[in-house]
Amino acid sequence: MSDNLRVIPLGGTEEVGINSTIFENKGDIIVVDFGLGFSEDDVYGIDFIIPNFEYLKQNKAKIRGIVITHGHLDHIGGLPYVLDQIGNPPVYGTKMTASIIRDKLKDTKKLKDASVIEFSPDDTFKLGSFNLSFFRVNHNIPDSVGIVIGTQYGNIVHTGDFKFDNTPFEEPVTEYGKIAKVGMEGVLLLLSDSTNATKTGMSVSESSITPVLEGIIVNAKGRVIAATFSSLLTRVNQLISLAYKHGRKVAISGSSMVSTVSIAKSLGYLKVPKDLFIKIEDVPNYPENEVLIITTGAQGEENAGLMKMIMGEHSSINIKKEDTILLSSSVIPTNAFLVQKLLDFLVGSGAHVIHQSIMDVHAGGHAHQEDHKLLFNLVKPKYFMPIEGYQSFLDTHIQTAKSVGIKEENILFPRNGLAFEYDESRGFIKKERIKHAPVRISGNTIGDLGNRVMKEREQLSGQGLVTVLFNVNSDHKLILPVHVISRGFVFSKKSFQLIDIVEKKAQSLFESHFEGKEFETGDVREYISKRLQSFLFEKYGKDPLILVIVNINGNTKYTSNSSQ
């Protein structure tokens, strides 16, 4: 690692999510954000992905802290999985952000060893060779900030997620004065949110959505069930305020929504009468036109509250024809198919469904092109790096930068893991690309499961499982006919003939190569499975996962051929 100033986007420059950036200087490292995301590949059993943290593990003694811009999962979600592996550096966040982080760490039993430190947007402090200060920005969660990182070469500005909203809902406007002051002092490098870089004009104000939401609530004849992100607190606050105004009780569904609302209430970000909220199980005790349910599941997640209501798996709520279903969130690109399925389910239920394609029920939390132009003119950066978005988003953001006079040679086009090092005479120079492939999270497993495991999961999903049982005596001779059990491979009575063929083929292979001979069971498993796979694929075009079991001196009893 060089002692020179370096900037390394660790995640979020080739996808939406897993946002994280490394800053190095004089042997010190700080990290801005460490989020999670969802894989766009067809991977089986992978819950989500986080940035590759191998470089941070190798240099954990030099990490002075992780500074978080706001409390959304694409900026904090990776922390529970990485902190203890990189030396538990202190994590810094504003009041709301720090509270959400503590809650997530508590859920994963990682809070005890972690250090989560709160700061105010007006605070300044030093982390190693970096001087940090902050400015409030509008997003769609309270306490969002941009960061000014002071170095010996000049200031670096990291916007975090932001938009310019001159009429935000019950929160302060962006601190334009601070941004302008930093711009007047001189900014070496600007890193800026590109999520909505392709959208023209100015971003939509949160307050403009309030009348639309109010009209929906007023005109609904039955229950209103509003689904949104649990961390989209601005929207949650709007819905709760409107429910109170129009005499509806509020019930919260979904563990993450319950947790986030509880935190926001305790910190004073949700100021409503105590008797406004009712338990979700008490909803049937109230008139349907006097209830608003706020739930998770706007992205079609299988285990979220809304999908459970649709499928009849929720403990208290089933969707009815009289319900008005409000989906108030943007669609994460990787979830587009799930959201379409969700809409189809809802339409099939007969409920009245309202979503962004029908009515403006969601104001995005990210800057549009005119917001970007205003930011460039306030900050006046010498160098610019777009972050947070697909490569095409970053490229569009670059075109906007050029339109306001940013020189092409001063624009850094990032890739995950690509290091840029600052040289006073030559500017930012591309250096090596560190290990950058996102890390997969599957249950409690962190890291690469291996190609073999992923191949097996693919086979199970697509072609099913064939289990081949061999029972042999101590002389290594078969004492029972070979038996095959399949799951998800063939499923009609006519296909039992194929099972018979597989059994005969497997027995023939064993008798010709292993019958009466000394052998290692591993050799039998490998030989039989490879030959059966080739046989089934060549003759029938099938490629199931084949599991070979060799039982020596056993007296295994089994039923007749079966398949599911």
Describe the structure.
- The protein is α/β, with parallel strands linked by helices and 564 residues long.
- The protein has three domains: 6-201 and 364-446, 4-Layer Sandwich (Metallo-beta-lactamase, Chain A), CATH 3.60.15; 206-354, Metallo-hydrolase/oxidoreductase (Rossmann fold), CATH 3.40.50.10710; 452-552, Ubiquitin-like (UB roll) (Roll), CATH 3.10.20.
- 30% of the residues lie in helices and 23% in strands.
- The protein contains 15 helices and 26 strands.
- The chain has an eight-stranded mixed sheet with strand order 7-6-5-3-2-1-20-21. A six-stranded mixed sheet has the order 8-9-10-11-12-19. Strands 15-14-16-13-17-18 form a six-stranded parallel sheet, with helices on both faces.
- A hairpin with an 8-residue loop joins strand 9 (130-136) and strand 10 (145-151).
- Helix 11 crosses helix 12 (391-403).
- The model is unreliable at 555-564 (pLDDT under 50).
